[in-house]
Design goal:
CATH architecture: Alpha-Beta Complex
Radius of gyration: 18 Å
Shape: globular
Number of helices: 13
Largest sheet: 8 strands, mixed
Structural class: alpha/beta
Number of strands: 10
Strand content: 15-25%
Order of helices and strands: EHEHEHHEHHEHHEHHHHEEEEH
Number of domains: 1
CATH topology: Inosine-uridine Nucleoside N-ribohydrolase, Chain A
Bound molecules: alpha-D-ribofuranose, calcium ion
CATH superfamily: Ribonucleoside hydrolase-like
Distance between the termini: 23 Å
Length: about 325
């Protein structure tokens, strides 16, 4: 039976690629795609979610959610890597911007509308919406099946500051509230996602541009390769969100360790840092599963296979 999921994302090139994979994977039933600001403004993220779903036109459209700014505003964005529109400048048309409900309301309604524990949330952006949904419905953390989050770091450096990963840094209070919530949480940090680098050969393996998935990926991935080369001198790209999605579809490829984690919400140098109690005798209570190791070759193969299969399903 397909796993019911909600995808919360801030498209973002790697978010868009994860949506291509998720919307046509027979192991997933995507109940909703909810936008959150991060890589781009909330309004642009809402538009990008709509544009991607329109371009892909899945057999069963998910409910869509509209992003709104975090309480303290967005401290940064990802346009330097994802382009001014967040999708590499692809500038996809949007037929019409349907009126959509706020993301946090869609999350609450979808979880409440299904049997307890049957809907999981895959959070691929800042945790603003998830925290707001938990605030709106305090019983929700116990009703969500699993919350899988792309974000944070354990031992490695940050990517937006020396200590913080982008998704957590965008809304540290929201991340702390989610880390401290009584939900079943799995974190896919940079320690795991940075181990996956897709090289230029990917562009030769993409589905034809005449396919829905190929059309999107041929338009958004070349700018990503340019961005990674210009900013990092890397001859390849990270696909953090697709790796996090693989943790939901192929959990056997990841090694999860139960840890005690929290989020710094006030540090001058460490704001947004994910902090874990790794003392010989930890005093903090374990509250989150963390994927620090993965089977790299198999994760890459699963992503490439997923792209091929999504294109075949989508047409
Ligand atoms: O740090 C990587 C994360 O930040 C990814 O989810 C990327 O899309 C951005 O949101
Ligand atoms: Ca993202």
């Amino acid at each position: 039976m397909a796993r019911k999921v909600i995808l919360d994302c801030d498209p973002g090139i790697d978010d868009a690629m994860a949506l291509c994979l998720a919307l046509f994977d027979p192991r997933l039933e995507v109940m909703a795609v909810t936008a959150v600001g991060g890589n781009v403004t909330p309004a642009q993220a809402t538009r990008n979610v709509q544009a991607i779903v329109e371009q892909l036109d899945p057999p069963r459209w998910p409910r869509l959610g509209a992003a709104s700014p975090p309480d303290n505003g967005l401290p940064v964005d990802g346009r330097n890597l994802h382009g001014s529109d967040g999708l590499g400048g692809a500038d996809f048309d949007v037929a019409e911007l349907h009126h959509v409900h706020p993301s946090e309301k869609v999350i609450c309604d979808q979880v409440r509308g299904a049997p307890p524990g049957s809907v999981s949330i895959i959070a691929l952006g800042p945790l603003t919406n998830v925290a707001r949904a938990f605030q709106r419905d305090p019983e929700l953390p116990g009703l969500v099946g699993e919350l899988i989050m792309m974000g944070g770091t354990v031992a490695g450096p940050g990517n937006i500051t020396p200590t913080a990963e982008f998704n957590i840094y965008c809304d540290p209070p929201a991340a702390r509230a989610v880390f401290r919530s009584p939900s079943t949480k799995t974190l896919i940090p940079l320690d795991a996602t940075n181990r996956i680098v897709l090289n230029f050969d990917l562009l030769n393996k993409l589905p034809a541009p005449s396919t829905k998935v190929g059309n999107i990926l041929h338009r958004i991935l070349p700018p990503a390769f340019r961005g990674y080369r210009q900013r990092f001198g890397l001859e390849g790209i990270h696909v953090h969100d697709s790796v996090a999605l693989m943790a939901s579809i192929h959990p056997e490829l990841f090694t999860i360790e139960e840890m005690a984690g929290d989020v710094e919400t006030a540090g001058e140098l460490t704001l947004g840092m994910t902090v874990f109690d790794r003392r010989r005798v930890p005093k903090w209570r374990r509250n989150i599963g963390v994927a620090q190791h993965l089977r790299q070759r198999e994760v890459v193969d699963a992503i490439l296979r997923g792209i091929r299969e999504a294109a075949a399903h989508a047409g």
